[in-house]
């Protein structure tokens, strides 16, 4: 059975791509081994992540993510059974939009800045959907 889970959290790592790359390399290896795919957004001091995979694998990963010192205030957005994955080719894509990226954010949030606490579940999912087919993700298969 496939499960999808999304959450947001406050990032405690710097905006330097190196720091995120450092943990995402091993994370992608883990994900490949356990059949997890998804997308991680790192923007304006927030993480917003979508995980998809076998129910036990996603639950196990979420349990360890919640305890990770690199972020705090981990807040579940939604979790549920799915028929198919949104990002079957991304062992964990990383998107780091420019700090304001008002163009995209005004589509999905009440203000032009990124604040996942202000976003509805359908808006969060629509934001993820807007990255389906994004050529930047092909590097993360
Ligand atoms: C924002 C964020 C996203 C992460 N995403 C993943 C991921 O997709 N897969 C993964 O294996 N670890 C990910 N990690 C790292 C995990 O929290 C954890 O360090 C890793 O699963 C190893 O856990 P373990 O030491 O309990 O085995 C992420 C960490 C953070 C802070």
Topology:
Layout: E1 2-11, H1 17-34, E2 37-43, E3 46-54, H2 55-66, E4 71-82, E5 93-95, H3 102-108, H4 121-129
Parallel strand pairs: 2-5
Antiparallel strand pairs: 1-3, 1-4, 2-3
Residues 23, 27, 30-31, 40, 47, 49, 61, 64-65, 68, 70-71, 92 line the site of flavin mononucleotide (FMN).
Structure ligands: flavin mononucleotide
Strand order of the largest sheet: 4-1-3-2-5
Distance between the termini: 22 Å
**Do you know the CATH topology of the domain at 2-95?**
Alpha-Beta Plaits
Please, what is the average pLDDT? 90
Q: Specify the structural class.
A: alpha+beta
Provide a count of the helices: 4
Helix content range: 25-40%
Strand content: 25-35%
CATH architectural grouping of the domain at 2-95: 2-Layer Sandwich
**Strands, count:** 5
CATH class category of the domain at 2-95: Alpha Beta
Unreliably modeled segments:
none
Which geometry do the CA atoms define? globular
CA radius of gyration is 14 Å
Characterize the biggest β-sheet: 5 strands, mixed
Give, in order, the helices and strands. EHEEHEEHH
């Amino acid at each position: 059975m496939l499960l999808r889970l999304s959450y947001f959290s406050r990032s405690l790592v710097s905006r330097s791509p190196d720091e995120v790359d450092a943990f995402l390399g091993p994370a992608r290896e883990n994900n490949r081994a356990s059949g997890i795919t998804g997308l991680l957004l790192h923007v304006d001091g927030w993480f917003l992540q979508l995980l998809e995979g076998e129910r036990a694998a996603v639950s196990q990963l979420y349990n360890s993510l919640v305890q990770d010192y690199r972020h705090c205030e981990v807040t579940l957005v939604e979790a549920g059974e799915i028929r198919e994955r949104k990002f079957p080719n991304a062992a964990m894509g990383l998107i780091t939009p420019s700090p304001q990226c008002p163009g995209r954010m005004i589509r999905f949030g009440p203000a032009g800045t990124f604040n996942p606490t202000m976003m509805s579940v359908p808006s969060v999912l629509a934001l993820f959907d807007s990255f389906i087919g994004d050529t930047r993700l092909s590097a993360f298969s």
